[in-house]
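Our platform keeps sequence and structure together, in a single record for each protein. Such a record has a labelled line for the sequence and another for the backbone structure tokens. The tokens are whole numbers drawn from a learned vocabulary of local backbone shapes. The remainder of this section carries one protein's record, kept here as part of the documentation:
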Amino acid sequence: MPGLMPIIIVVLAGLGLAIQPPTNAALARVSGSVWLAALVSFTVGTAALLIVWAFDRTPLSALRGAPWWAWLGGFYGAAFVAALAFAAPRLGIAAALSIAIASQLVAALTLDHFGLLQLPQQSVTLTKLAGIALVLIGVVVFRRG
């Protein structure tokens, strides 16, 4: 069961990611601002994380040794939330997420192959390239559908 728990957590997170763009798009539509919708999304998320962190009690000093680039994660998340709030109503959620997933896989393959950002190096294989090719084909199929 311990090997199954990370998979279950990622599946649940993936479900949330599929629901998040139309939720944020609704805020953007009502407010007229993608930026305000993203801000509300991050404010609610920050509040939830503050509650969880209050129970976790990891001290802020634990972040002292973080490399400079580790502080940019929130920027990427904010850009993603705003981009999907903008794109979802224009492309449809399936197409928008398939494009996002394809770009994430290409970036992930690059990060893994070169062992960037302190990740263990994992070589590119024909099987991995075939998998990404299938996802990219899926993006094209979604866009034409």
About this structure: The CA atoms of residues 80 and 100 lie 9 Å apart.
